[in-house]
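INPUT
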Amino acid sequence: MASELPGGLQRFINGILPENPVYRQVLAMCPTLAVTNTIAGAVTMAGATAFVLICANVVTAALRRLLQPHLRILVFTVTISAFVTIADRMLAAFMPAMSQKLGPYVPLIIVNCMIICRCEVCASKQGVAVAAADALGQSLGFLAALLSISIVREILAFGSIFQGWAGANGEGLRVLPKSFPNWNLMALPPGAFFTLGILLGLANWCVAAREKRKTAS
Amino acid sequence: MNTLATDLTVSSIILLILSTALINNFVLHYFVGICPFIGVSRRIDTALGMGMAVTFVMTIAAILTKTITYFITGNANVDGGAPGLLTGTDLSFLNYTVYILVIAGAVQFVEMYLRKFFPALYSAFGVYLPLITTNCAILFVCLMIMMKGTGFVETIAYAVAGGLGFTIAISIMAGIREELDHADIPEPLKGAGITLIVAGILALAFMGFTGIGQ
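OUTPUT
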């Protein structure tokens, strides 16, 4: 049975694009939509999620022989919530402004289906090293997805990138001409839905086009 | 302050319900509960069943977690921090773990209770109940109540109104998707893509409610 499951390297590569959590599996929708109005928020969120995912995956993999089938989801959830508490406390201590901005979305990592999915699919069946590689790949895929959405939204909404990180007063680097009016809608909830919907469509279109070329040749 | 009752007027409660259900709609403003919104909302009757089940569990979970926070673990988010009334210690670092366990337990108990005493209700939304444990809207309500430090009556009003808003959003979405089945949608946008774009338009429409609160 174990030999049929993909190895560590394969898991790592799969997580980034072929099984990208956001674009291919359509998981973890709430953080994807909620925190992507600035790049800084998106990267912090992806970092916190990566920390929780890697730790939870490793712990679950280490415990996998002790897991009882009917209790496993509960064990995953409690493991995840312990690491989420750590991540939340760290953010509140070292990045108070960002912690305030992300608000309830950091504790909501507990119910992020992407993490439970990785614990279930990979960590409860394979060893610690494979689980760590898998978690790393998925986290990178998640980071890439959040970045792609937040770059589009931040540029269209404010005409600049890296708000809060670069520039004189943290107003970011201007990339669009000054004459471009701020498209505030993009920073608001509807902008999140539109951007993700269209990017999801684009990703599907790319995959379909590649499949077509493969079958044609 | 970790209070059970704050200054309450009927109008403030009505305002709270309106702003929670319509202006700050859980799905369209806070993006929680998106998974059932995309996955389940295909027919209006199933959407209504899901919405009712969520409202029901949400209210019970909010009351339970509020009680536990108030009496046992304490709340670090209100100014100065408030220790639990009975323990006298600040155990608020346990809150997230306690909340998720309470929600999981509450869902199990509600399921058993309904099956035993309200079989009709159970068959109406029994299938949706296990799904609700991982519905982020439930945990979100508990967290918001903790972060805002609301009183007990407001807690109930907030949870019921939040569930109501969820039901409204998911039912409207189901109605639109029933029609979308007959529409000519570009191939790559089928499924989640078009749902998200429609949700964006809905969110835009719900932004029109923003003036109500003033």
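end of record. The interface with chain B takes residues 26, 29-30, 33-34, 74, 77-78, 81-82, 84-85, 88-89, 103-104, 107-108, 110-113, 116, 185, 188-194, 196-198, 200-205, 208 of chain A (CB under 8 Å).
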